């Protein structure tokens, strides 16, 4: 049984396609499938949030085709690359196993622990059983398909996964007298006189090293045919290996950064034990994905998609441009609540810099008119989302009608959506008793009458891989490493009513804040930063006059996965004072500036 930390939650990413519009760097309900999440989209949750639009329920009714292999398209990655299959038992860390493998250039996919092996059309090079919040001996405990142990491939069990291996080989799991949570020292036991494979998991590592443990149960007896390969203070069987099979179990988490040598343990398993090739690179991905897109779309097929100027939608757009050129139609909708000069910068980057076929729609007056007098954050999201859908649908029809009169291309029948692998994980992961921290602000709605099929070129990738892909495609570094920006934009960085003056103040303050961060060399250290307007007035003195002005709220956090985040404290107070002085003096209407020091949890990264 894995001990749960208070910071459990889902991975953060920024989505493309229709979904980019409502992304804020926080993820959605981990206890629902994506379709169910859309159906429940506007029902308030215990956390006070909701997914974006009531119209998002439409996605579940459409049954749009996605990313299928047809027209001679290249096979899926797990059929082309040596793949380590990660079976998820509901651990908050499972996605990190897949990420660490990808970082080693070993392709990996995650499936729920309930996956039936008979339904797989491919054979993995090895299998990792994740941790989980259950007790393996409980009546309702999840168990892996027994056929996993008949695959004749190496298997590594992590925490609950170790206990699952022991349970399958004769039980021997019980509640520990003392829970082991946090940093512990692992003592490796070598077996030079036995089969060589037994010591391979910890090959190249010292006999004692620090690991991160998170469990309440432990092995009470050694399963028959296994040897102890590691111990810790409270776990006499912290590592086990079968004496004749490539079957291993460890009672710690090698996938987390708190286990400094954990990545080498994972590499030993994947490369030295499983024999997986380290050939998963973005260069090879581009080559295969361009072929796949061309095969799916055909010689005259066309694709339409929304772009935001963010990393994901830009990378997806450039990938489509590489594959089919001007037959990809990108649409950028200026909603009036974006960063300062955002529309102009996005247009220049995509058209002049990346040769993307882009249509820009300035709908700022329409958005701001509908937002007039609205203070409730959920209502603001819905207004922005509904308006965006209306505008995009209208513009898509215009583009489609214009293309019908040309002989060079067919009709638009594909819609680009920037789904990332964390979204896939969310929809397929084993749903344990993890709490929903905050629902995700996204939209997946598409009017049924548009009758479009989905194309999702980034669905196999994590965020860090998207950045690498962007670099591979020649996208400028400053764009590849751009911080996430919420789909509802500055509207949810203004507490209360969204007015033109508050938008101006938020934009100008944010511009100064980000420019100072970049100038000081902190931008890559910080994962997300922004300036917000708190919506309450404060007294200040400007010259000889009394000012009743706005309070600017500055936020900067550091995180690797957006599940948890620490406040940025890497600058001296003098630097923060300098930034504060600039904003107070240069942005008209600002009375004072504050810096938030709350980590996540308890606070979310965005204010609303």
CATH class of the largest domain: Alpha Beta
Helical stretch tally: 16
- CATH homologous superfamily annotation of the largest domain: HUPs
In total, the number of domains comes to 3
Radius of gyration computed on alpha carbons: 26 Å
Shape: globular
Characterize the biggest β-sheet. 9 strands, mixed
> What is the first-to-last residue Cα distance?
34 Å
Fill in the CATH topology of the largest domain: Rossmann fold
Count the beta strands.
18
Structural class: alpha/beta
Unreliable segments (pLDDT under 50, ≥5 consecutive)? 3-66, 432-449
The CATH architecture classification of the largest domain is: 3-Layer(aba) Sandwich
In what order do the strands lie side by side in the largest sheet?
Answer: 2-1-3-4-9-8-7-5-6
What integer is the average pLDDT?
Answer: 83
Protein name: GMP synthase [glutamine-hydrolyzing]
InterPro entries: Class_I_gatase-like, GATASE, GMP_synth_C, GMP_synth_GATase, GMP_synthase, GMPS_ATP_PPase_dom, NAD/GMP_synthase, Rossmann-like_a/b/a_fold
EC number: 6.3.5.2
Binding site for ATP: 308-314
Architecture overview:
- This is GMP synthase [glutamine-hydrolyzing].
- This protein has 608 residues and is an alpha/beta fold.
- It folds into three domains: 255 residues, HUPs (Rossmann fold, 3-Layer(aba) Sandwich); 192 residues, Rossmann fold (3-Layer(aba) Sandwich), CATH 3.40.50.880; 102 residues, 2-Layer Sandwich (GMP Synthetase, Chain A, domain 3), CATH 3.30.300.10.
- β16 and β17 form a beta hairpin.
- α7 crosses α8 and α8 packs across α13.
- The N terminus is likely disordered.
């Amino acid at each position: 049984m894995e001990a749960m930390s208070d910071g459990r939650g889902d991975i953060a990413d920024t989505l493309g396609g229709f979904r980019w519009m409502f992304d804020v760097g926080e993820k959605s309900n981990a206890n629902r499938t994506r379709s169910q999440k859309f159906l429940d989209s506007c029902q308030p949750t215990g956390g006070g949030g909701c997914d974006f639009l009531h119209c998002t329920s439409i996605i579940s009714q459409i049954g749009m085709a996605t990313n299928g292999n047809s027209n001679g398209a290249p096979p899926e990655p797990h059929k082309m690359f040596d793949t380590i299959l990660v079976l998820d038992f509901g651990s908050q860390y499972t996605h990190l196993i897949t990420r660490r493998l990808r970082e080693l250039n070993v392709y990996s996919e995650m499936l729920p622990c309930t996956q039936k092996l008979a339904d797989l059309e491919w054979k993995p090079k090895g299998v990792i059983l994740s941790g989980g919040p259950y007790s393996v001996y409980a009546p309702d405990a999840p168990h892996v398909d027994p056929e996993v142990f008949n695959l004749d491939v190496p298997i590594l069990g992590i925490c609950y996964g170790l206990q699952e291996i022991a349970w399958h080989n004769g039980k021997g799991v019980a509640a520990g007298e003392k829970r082991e949570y946090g940093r512990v020292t692992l003592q490796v036991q070598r077996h030079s006189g036995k089969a060589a494979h037994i010591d391979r998991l910890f090959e190249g590592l010292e006999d004692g090293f620090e690991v991160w443990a998170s469990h309440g149960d432990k092995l009470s007896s050694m399963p028959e045919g296994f040897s102890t390969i590691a111990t810790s203070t409270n776990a006499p069987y912290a590592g086990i290996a079968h004496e004749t099979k490539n079957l291993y179990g460890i009672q710690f988490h090698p996938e987390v950064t708190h286990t400094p040598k954990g990545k080498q343990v994972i590499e030993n398993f994947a490369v030295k034990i499983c024999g997986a090739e380290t050939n998963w690179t973005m260069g090879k991905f581009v080559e295969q994905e361009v072929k796949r897109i061309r095969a799916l779309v055909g010689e005259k097929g066309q694709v339409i998609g929304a772009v935001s100027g963010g990393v994901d939608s830009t990378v997806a757009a450039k990938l489509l441009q590489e594959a089919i050129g001007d037959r990809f139609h990108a649409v950028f909708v200026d909603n009036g609540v974006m960063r300062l000069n955002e529309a102009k910068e996005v247009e220049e980057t995509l058209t002049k810099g990346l040769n993307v076929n882009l249509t820009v729609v300035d709908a700022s007056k329409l958005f701001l008119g509908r937002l007039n007098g609205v203070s409730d954050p959920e209502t603001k999201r819905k207004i922005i989302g509904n308006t965006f859908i209306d505008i995009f649908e209208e513009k898509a029809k215009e583009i489609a009608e214009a293309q019908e009169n040309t002989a060079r291309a067919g009709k638009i029948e594909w819609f680009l959506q920037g789904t990332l692998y964390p979204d896939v994980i969310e929809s397929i992961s084993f749903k344990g008793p993890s709490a929903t921290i905050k629902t995700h602000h996204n939209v997946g709605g598409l009017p049924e009458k548009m009758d479009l099929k989905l194309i999702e070129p980034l669905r196999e990738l994590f965020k860090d891989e998207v950045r690498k892909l962007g670099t591979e495609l020649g996208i400028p570094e400053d764009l590849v490493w751009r911080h996430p920006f919420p789909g509802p934009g500055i509207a949810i960085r203004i507490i209360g009513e969204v007015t033109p003056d508050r938008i101006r103040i938020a934009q100008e303050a944010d511009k100064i804040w980000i420019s100072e961060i970049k100038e000081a060399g902190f931008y890559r250290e910080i994962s997300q930063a922004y300036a917000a307007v708190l919506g309450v007035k404060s007294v200040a003195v400007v010259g000889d006059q009394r000012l009743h002005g706005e309070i600017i709220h500055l936020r900067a956090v550091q995180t690797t996965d957006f599940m948890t985040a620490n406040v940025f404290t890497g600058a001296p107070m003098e630097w923060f004072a300098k930034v504060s002085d600039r904003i107070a003096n240069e942005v008209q209407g600002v009375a004072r500036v504050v810096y938030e020091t709350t980590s996540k949890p308890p606070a979310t990264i965005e204010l609303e």
